[in-house]
Amino acid sequence: MALRIGIDTGGTFTDICLYDTERNELRVFKVSSTPDDPGRAIIDGVSELLRIADAGGFADISYFAHGTTVGTNALLTETGARTGLLTTRGFRDLLELARGRRPRLYDLQADKPAPLVPRDLRLEVTERVRHDGTVRTRLEEDEVRAQIRRLRDEGVEAVAVCLLYSYVLPDHERHLARWIEEEFPGAYVSLSSEVLPEFREYERLSTVVANAYLGPKVSGYLARLRERLGEKGLAARPYVTQSNGGVVSFAEAEKYPVRMVLSGPSTGVVGAARLASAAGHPDIITFDMGGTSTDVSLVQRGAPRTSSGLDLDGRAIRTAMLDIHTVGAGGGSVARLDSGGLLKVGPQSAGAFPGPACYGHGDLPTVTDANVVLQVLNPEYFLGGRMKIDPEASRRAVGTLAAELGMSIEDTAQGIIRVVTANMARAIRVISVQRGHDPRDYVMVPFGGAGPLHASRLAAELGMTTILVPESPGALSALGLLLTDVRSDFSRTAVMPLGTGAADPSAGDVAAVLGGADPSAGDVAAVFAELDAQAERWFEASDIEERARGTRRQLDLRYAGQNHELTVAFPAGPVTAESVAAALDDFAAAHERAYGYANPGNPVQAVTFRVQAWGEIDARPSSSPVVGGRPEGEQPRSREVYLPELGGFHECLVYDRTALAPGTVVEGPAIIEQMDTTTLVLPGSTARVDAHRNLVIGAS
Questions:
Q1: Three-class SS state of 636
Q2: pTM score, whole prediction
Q3: In whole angstroms, what is the distance from residue 633 CA to residue 625 CA?
Q4: pLDDT tens-place string over residues 78-121
Q5: Which residues contact 485 (CB under 8 A, 6 or more apart)?
Q6: In the chain, what's the furthest Cα-to-Cα distance?
């Protein structure tokens, strides 16, 4: 028996997908998360799902992949390791100076986040490498060893090393790593030349410090989970998700935990892109609404957009990742009045415990409680009946807020929905309108436990006309773990002239295409060859078969004199006049799209070279999920649902999603329930079940 498991740990629920390759059967399952020990929910949830599915035990699992927010939460809550820093003399305070910008331009009192390494643990070493890689000042070994011993005596757990030009010449950082191992065995060591061999010293410093800060916590969590899985009988190599949408082994993740800051939401985007493309919708906007936050992303031609990093809580994180924008808007987001008496929703969340008031442990009104009051959500239970709720607790919580507003409970609940919808609409405009894309040209793909519940009103807010709800949206991030590949990214900064793109490449004259900069063609080839070699070593270390290997090249380009770059694809194979000209043409088009103009004939610089390597997985799920429910054809129930479009409570048909066969058409207003989510179909809309068992919602 060959079982494949994908697990996504969220703030409120842990989602589990089980794919039995012999039976070609896919099952999804949800359990409450255990924030104090996320691994407990994983072990208990997998054990229960294996029992329910009668699918054997942990020893029968051939593939195990896990998405986690352990690293992200440690950064946001500042609960990482006590970390020390070794840096080039004169750059001790760079972590605090950053880019010299205030968090909010017009707020003179706004505080920057506290550095992850306090000043007394930021130590300098005498050394200097020039920008061209030549050594001006060599390391003083005795001085360095003394600084290492000082950090050891201060009780640090992790040491970040970031020297000024280590991305050009990493030798000095490697010497430091060897001396740290000798003087301070057991310390977690993170080198900037390994974590981010790119220029811009502040971003590189901030990223390597975050990597070291997260290292002991993430590696400890993964080590404990690996041990518990082994005790249960798991023999397969476990994987964990990265921010780039791929998975890597636990061992690699322990070395580069900073690459996991978007571990949770990334595979949901990958899964949505694959499912929507198979259904004939390659251009989509994903809308992942969970219990704590909402993540949105834009996908063109079936390929998720990528980014080189983000600022997380005011701290620069630079690593390859999917372009995902996050806001604090989820089912557990708390509604309150601000100091001006205005209704606010989020970013504070009730989380998994105490959770929304209806869970029976808390009394704060949340988005989930508002939906229970409106009876859009089942007022009796969640998770297909496995989780009983207290609707009166929701009414009491929302009622307290209603009394402060002087409004009815129902109008207050609907007000909470309107506010959270506006918050999510702003998030989608960030990744669409603000980047030159009209959301009306895209199909919305909602997932997460609360995504389909809010999708119809959110789409109406944005003018989007089509919504595609996957068959198992509440567990799509976990399902995405069964659809994604093993993946790693390699990069290196090497600033060099690339040419202007003004010449005609048809004659095959590399010097002409490069604007006379003939040597750069060989330099481009040399840098890509170095990165290709790193990818090859990664393939071998990851035991990826030759037939499953793939790579993709990218290049960060800018006009000479600019301070920011645009990333374009670079053709595979030998560097030729045609491949360089193609990259230059793509850059001009990207510049036109981003800034509204291009400068033909202006010198173009290549800045950072990138290679993405992946190993394709076998046995992707092809069956429909088994989630339980009534047999097809059973008549729907009904209940009164508060719909402002119809002036108040209105009798709505309530359908079981598992009873809807392909070709079924549901006229709104209607509610479609399933184990992992609820879908609202508004008046004037129609939901049709397509051949892939997706719900496609559009105007009647």
A1: coil
A2: 0.85
A3: 18
A4: 899 999 999 999 999 999 999 888 777 888 888 888 999 999 99
A5: 246, 247, 614, 615, 616, 617
A6: 81
